[in-house]
Amino acid sequence: NAGVTQTPKFQVLKTGQSMTLQCAQDMNHEYMSWYRQDPGMGLRLIHYSVGAGITDQGEVPNGYNVSRSTTEDFPLRLLSAAPSQTSVYFCASRGGQTNSYEQYFGPGTRLTVT
Amino acid sequence: AQSVTQPDIHITVSEGASLELRCNYSYGATPYLFWYVQSPGQGLQLLLKYFSGDTLVQGIKGFEAEFKRSQSSFNLRKPSVHWSDAAEYFCAVGESGGWGKFQFGAGTQVVVTP
Predict the structure, then answer these.
(1) Is A64 left (phi over 0), alpha (psi -120 to 50) or beta?
(2) Mean pLDDT throughout B3-31?
(3) What are the Cα distances from residue B39, in Å, to A41, B89, B110?
(4) A68 at the B interface (CB within 8 A)?
(5) Neighboring chain B residues of A54 at a CB cutoff of 8 Å
(6) Which of B43, B49, B104 has the CB atom closest to A42's CB atom?
(7) A55: phi > 0 → left, psi -120 to 50 → alpha, else beta; which?
(8) Angle at CA of residue B68, ends B96 and B11, nearest 5°
(9) Is the pLDDT confidence value at B100 over 80?
(10) What is the pLDDT of residue B111?
(11) By CB count within 10 A, which of A13, A52, A105, B30 is most buried?
């Protein structure tokens, strides 16, 4: 099992550009989520999905879109990048069993918007 | 809604000394509690988790944590730290219902001195 994979590892964008951060998991997990990590703020939830075709907003959704067409993939789209979106982005997944609420994290994507 | 407080932003500890990281949470029901560790430039690794039962939980790398309901705390401890324990540590509380939404604390940076 590769677990949770994310691409790219690093990305530099200019203000106004768009891009998609990829996330995939091979554990057949129902739940997937995207977080951003900023110094002194821990991880904040951007969007999450409870299954294919079902997504919802988290704490900081503005400027980001998601979709979940398959169980495995959960891409995060930046519509028009802004310097405030400079951050490290983590994708996570977990199974649907009530005794496995732990989330498994990908290695992260470090994004810089200039 | 749940919330998590990690009162210590930064802790410096000597190699071989004991370590305790504090975590306080707010949640209306029985929480699911987690500690994650993040080494520089890496993703998050689960150290330990508490769902129910014994309030003293053992984790990987020699860490343990104690759930104290009366104090709404879930402090992380290690009897003797190693230089490799230098990292950032995050406490998280997960909803015990719904999809298990996580709330992370802001993190505690641990520096280990010789």
Answers:
(1) beta
(2) 93
(3) 17, 9, 10
(4) no
(5) none
(6) B104
(7) beta
(8) 100
(9) no
(10) 97
(11) A105
